Amino acid sequence: MDNLLDFFSNINASAFTFDLNYIADKVVPVLNKGLWVSLSLIVPSVILGFIFGVVIGAGRVFAPPRIRRLLDLHVTLVRGVPLLVQMFIIYYGLPSIGIRFEPYVAGVLSFTICTSAYQAEYVRGALMSISQGQIKAAQALGFTAFKSVVWVIVPQALRRALPGCGNEVIYLIKYSSLASAIVMMDLTGEAVGLASQEYKYTEVYVMLGAYYLAITSAATLALYFIERRTAIPGFGRLAAGATK
Amino acid sequence: MNPENYVLCARNLHKSFAGKEILHDVSVAVGKGETKVLIGPSGGGKSTFLQCLNFLIHPDQGDVFLDGRKINSANKRELYDLRQQVGMIFQDFNLFDHLTAEGNVSIALRKVKGMSKKDAHARAIHELDRVGLSRRADHYPAQLSGGQKQRVAIARALAMDPKVILLDEPTSALDPELVGEVVAVIRKLAAGGMPMLLATHQMDFAQALATEIIFMEKGRIIEQGVPEALLAPGARTRTQDFCLSLNQMGNQNSMQLCCHSQAAPSPSAPEE
Q1: Which of A139, A141, A160, A238 would you mutate first to test chain B, the one with the most B CBs within 10 A?
Q2: Residue A244 domain-assigned (yes or no)
Q3: Interface residue of B8, B92, B94, B104 to substitute, partner A, most A CBs within 10 Å
Q4: Could you give the number of structural domains in chain A?
Q5: Which CATH number covers residue A91?
Q6: What is the ipTM of this complex?
Q7: Residue numbers in chain A where pLDDT is lower than 70
Q8: What is the pTM of this model?
Q9: Which domains does chain B have, with CATH numbers?
């Protein structure tokens, strides 16, 4: 008990100050600047990553064997190599063979590649959960293979994949913080810069965490509404008996 | 049989899966206004045979003719054309789970036949009305009973204006009290002259509708003929034996129709 009291009094005595004025005057304006950079990385990466995820996921289920093997290899590589390493390769490595990207382009590119590989797995799982009967019914009506994928299988699979895909969006928001490693002044980049000026680590990093929490919370809410809007009795949120 | 005299004709179909022969030299033809009923034990090849007719399963050997024209299933255009003209009803309905009843009926009209959304909708409502379900048009499959689902499936097939309909045990997955509504729809189709090939275990139904009964077992046609001949009192056919064995499983309806008054041996069977 005494030890515990000592512990808390030490905190009070030494470093545990939380300077609200500093936060309002300095931290918030700087982080707001970084917020727009972060969002400009996240939003296109989410959209592109989802589109490519659906294409790669569908390819891994329906494409001819040769293309399927190629996509398997792609997903294995992307999932198996740390994102930070991939970003270093794209931003610092590729220039040695003459391919140069702006930091922003390198960021969006590496995030898109990474997130689409994960999205593809969610999509693949959902596609494989669609029963053979659905495909047979479409074929029996004269649907071509391509049309039955587009009009019957994918619309059902996407509804099943949505919770997993939403999860991946939350991950992407958080790993976008790696952009600072390729000199992007995103939220984390700005925060690190600011913290090293006046050494007010607590104020800066707690606020940084709060900013990410705000973004992920907004995304969670948005995903909830998408799930609710696309829900169909028998799929997801709505029970079989419910009407929309 | 000369394919030119029939709407749909299968000649000498063979199919094996993993070395096991499922169909052996099966030939069946359906003419205008005819209802041919496939019966026989489960695993006898009825379902495989029906699915060979629209190439959901590709036969190893043999030919399929529509209106006397041999189908080259390697030609995609010909294959998709055939499937549009041959309706199929599945045992477990296979409605598209993400679409309403109306959507289920109209989607192929729009995406396969290229109809406008408005025309497809009007046609879908008309077809749903024919099976007594226009008031359920905006219900999803999860909100429909088994019998309603199967009626939507029939409406979906009819909307394509098929020349013939294949029905693969359309009432087998239904609760007993829902069988009647589906049977009524199928009877109406038969009465309207729609050529049909129907696999079923419901003997009363088979007998009432069939212009010909085809008994299949172990991938072969064992016998075929008009119901009056195959099921006549004392006919001693394989079909009649099969009927009796169905009766012993508690199929009261078929008992009345199949047994008539002949001295059928009836060992004490477990009653439900």
Answers
A1: A141
A2: no
A3: B94
A4: 1
A5: 1.10.3720.10
A6: 0.86
A7: 1-17, 236-244
A8: 0.80
A9: 3-259 (3.40.50.300)
